[in-house]
Amino acid sequence: MSKISPSEITPEHIYLSRRELLKSMGILTGGAALLAACNGNPPPMTLEPGPQGDPAADPVDPSASSNVDELGDPLNTFDDITNYNNYYEFTTDKIDVARLAEGYPISPWEIQVGGLVHNPTTFSLDDLRKFEIEERIYRMRCVEAWSMVIPWMGFPLSKMLAQVEPKAEAKYVRFETIHDTKGMPGFTKYPFYQWPYVEGLRMDEAMHDLTLISTGLYGKELLPQNGAPARLVVPWKYGFKSIKSIVKIDLVTEMPILLWMNAAPNEYGFYANVNPEVDHPRWSQGTERRIGELGRRETLMFNGYADEVAHLYSGMDLSINF
Amino acid sequence: MKRRRFHPLQIITYIAVWIPLAILLWDLTHDNLGADIIREATLRTGKTALALLVLSLACTPVSTILNYKPLLKLRRPLGLYSFMYASIHFAIFIGVDYFFDLTLIKGALLEKRFAIVGLTTGLILLVLAITSTQGWKRRLKKRCVQLHKLAYVAGFLATVHFVWLVKQGVVEPWIWMGVVLILLLARIPPVKKFTLAVRSRSAP
Predict the structure, then answer these.
(1) Collapsing DSSP states into helix, strand and coil, what is residue B56?
(2) Domains in chain B: boundaries
(3) Nearest Cα to A133, choosing from A217, A235, A226, A76?
(4) Nearest Cα residue in chain B from A287
(5) In the prediction, which pLDDT does A4 show?
(6) Residue in B closest to A281 by C-alpha
(7) Do B97 and A84 touch (CB under 8 A)?
(8) A190 contacts in B (CB within 8 Å)?
(9) Nearest-5° Cα angle at B166, B164 to B167
(10) The complex's ipTM?
């Protein structure tokens, strides 16, 4: 995988100068209203409502180092990736997420990394930008049996965890999405779910080199609908594991209870590894629809990353640990 | 032969039922179906089939409540066009989504309950469509009315098909199921009797 220097990827100087200009014009106003006050914890951050980088106006064109993934499958277009999203905090309608998420304020932003670590750290956007950014072209397989090929930009989660120095007793990593009841309509619209969105990985999964914290795609900073400013990408697991817009990462001893495990424990397990041999109780996982293609493809074991990750699950019954 | 007279409601119906298909084709040719065109087209045709079936089922109770007989003439066309959209829905599933791959279709269609329920719904609509002609009505006589009560079964199964398709917490299919159950309830004799009593009392 080719390495691209951060300056080539992110049009920060232009993006920020536009933001500064708008700020000086008084378009950006105080956003004390946007506090994640519901979880009883002190608000993890204050957010300013501000104009989002309009992809059309963004001076950098979407670009990737290759047109295909390592299997020769063509990348999905920037347009498809940014206009077809599962992000229930905004809406359950995949096509409508982009519109509802447009302009969602993602700066300033903080990710609190704590729990069983020696060095709890709060990462600001600037801190995130200090990581060396690389491009990773990954297949993304949704549990709903569709898939895309996406050129993510980001850094391995293991690098972030190394900075906080996990304690020996840490067995799992628990992730949490922003719980912004004012800016995201989904919380009031879908009270069925036990918000906030929570995801988790086993420690070895979290430390695996494929596991990415993504801050961009196609050489551009992430848009809100894709989980800006930073989201997880775990390519051998179903898409819902790749939690978006992270505000909190905790290292814990117990396997965390995840939003989807709460919603339907018989359908969504902790591991959620892509597995064509273990069907969803209601539909087959043997095939998938690659967005942009007619017909179906056979789904690959661990989404085609078996060589890299199968050893993590040796000796486990994957139909029980689904 | 007597020339058939169309009620204005029939004319409106015969035109309106084509609108969802026209919108679908427009959106298809104008790249307006989102990234997953197949899913969107499948969902839209399925939902239109369900909506027309529900409208068809609503004709009788609404006509009872309003005492407005012409509505009964819409049951057949609404049901037939529901079958048309269900057929398109099925054709997209087989021909475009699964690209006629019979092994895959066998796995997807015959092993998954949501698909089996969808297929059953479609078969009921097929039988009802075939037996909706004057000739069959003559041949089946009374049994025709009984047979066509299967439309309620089809309506209910269609909503089950929808419920089993979505993730937990998605409300829309449950609303459809509630509407079908209310319509079914309205046909139960005591409820119908009650409706008629209320109507005659409120009539001038």
Answers:
(1) helix
(2) 8-188
(3) A217
(4) B104
(5) 52
(6) B112
(7) no
(8) 169
(9) 110
(10) 0.80
